[in-house]
Amino acid sequence: MRVWDLPLRLFHWALVVCVLGAYACVKSAGITEGWLSETGLDWMTWHSRFGYGVLTLILFRLIWGLFGPRYAQFRHFITGPTRVLTYLRNPSQVIGHNPLGAWSVVAMLAAFGLQAVSGLFASDDILFDGPLSSLNPTLSRIFNSLHHASEWVLISLVILHLCAIIYYTLFRRQPLLRAMVTGDLPVTRDHHAGAVEPALDNAPVALRAVIILLACAALVFWISQY
Ligand code: HEM
Ligand code: HEM
């Protein structure tokens, strides 16, 4: 059954590329010897480009969480602590993000969103300044420290994310990775009885996603030119 619509899947894999790209570039910028430093590439400019990509994608995801198909909607998967506890006591298969996984999704969206926003205010004090770094000195100082201090928080979130997926794949026999690639999850008979509906994933949905994405990209481009 279709669970993840195409725009959501593309969002996920584009986010992975942009996050890894931003990280690889900022690490390459710190290398002063060897072939990496001789490529002539402006690594910090590429760091910010990938970072703008992350910002655009997270903005898109926030809007998709309101206007996207059923399993992408925040109201479908964000639940209170009682539902999380019930799920922990009786972890049955859930279509879409489960109540616990949902909070890790929220944490990742918030953490990477904050990282991209704080990057706008960051500066390396030599060659590269984020576009909003001279807007307000206090705000810049706070965001700059946040942007530098968060590295291990972000790495831990991603490691936790990958461990959870490996756990669900091996021990719970839920092919989550395949679902994030093809969009489809195998559905048991119980779920049919519970009248679950597949996510809408057609041309009008894709068109809506393209319009939202273009609007987000335009906003981020405008900020980057500040
Ligand atoms: C989610 C996206 C981003 C990630 C994961 C990320 C990650 C990082 C990391 C790990 C560092 C190095 C911190 C350190 O070595 O202490 C850094 C530095 C920096 N980033 Fe980002 N960043 C992102 C987005 C951005 C954006 C959008 C901008 C600006 C447009 C930006 C501008 C900077 C600047 C100016 C530095 C300082 C470099 C230095 O001190 O040498 N970043 N970023
Ligand atoms: C930088 C690395 C990554 C980040 C920031 C990230 C972020 C996310 C986010 C935000 C979601 C929620 C999707 C949504 O509803 O918006 C998600 C889900 C998912 N991610 Fe990742 N991801 C990363 C790497 C990976 C990798 C490498 C894999 C594959 C091995 C992966 C597999 C999945 C799967 C299978 C789901 C769906 C989980 C579920 O069914 O509840 N992710 N990821």
Automatic annotation (TrEMBL):
Keyword Transmembrane helix: yes
Membrane topology of the entry: Multi-pass membrane protein
GO cellular component: plasma membrane
Main location: membrane
Cell compartment(s), UniProt: Cell membrane
GO function terms (MF aspect): electron transfer activity; heme binding
UniProt domain Cytochrome b561 bacterial/Ni-hydrogenase: residue ranges: 3-183
GO BP term, example: respiratory electron transport chain
One Pfam family of this chain: Ni_hydr_CYTB
Coiled-coil boundaries: none
Gene3D superfamilies named among the record's database cross-references: Transmembrane di-heme cytochromes, Chain C (1.20.950.20)
Lipid biosynthesis listed as a keyword: no
Superkingdom in the source lineage: Bacteria
Keywords: Cell membrane, Membrane, Transmembrane, Transmembrane helix
Transmembrane segments: 48-67, 100-122, 152-170, 205-224
Name of the protein described by the UniProt record: Cytochrome B561
Organism field: Advenella kashmirensis W13003
Lineage summary: Bacteria, Pseudomonadati, Pseudomonadota, Betaproteobacteria, Burkholderiales
